[in-house]
Specification:
Layout (H helix, E strand, L loop, with lengths): L2 H12 L4 H22 L6 H27 L1
Helix pairs in contact: 1-2, 2-3
């Protein structure tokens, strides 16, 4: 299992404190699935996994920002 899969499963198992985080988690999961499909298909266009991985990183950064905001509010 990859680190990304582990991270996503841990976050999903903990539940989501609000709808914004839930939506961002869903988007991250979708981008991860799209990345895996691009890699599994041995896509000749290397830009497909690259673009979807970049999107995944943006979603994970957004999750980090959202969770950091929750901690700051406490």
């Amino acid at each position: 299992m990859s680190d990304f899969e582990t991270i996503l499963k841990e976050l999903e198992a903990r539940g989501t404190p609000n709808e914004e985080i839930a939506n961002t988690q869903r988007r991250a999961r979708a981008h991860w699935g799209f990345t895996l499909k691009g890699i599994d298909l041995h896509n000749t266009q290397s830009s497909v996994p690259t673009v979807s991985t970049d999107s995944l990183f943006r979603q994970l950064n957004e999750l980090t920002r959202l969770y950091a905001g929750l901690q700051a509010d406490e």
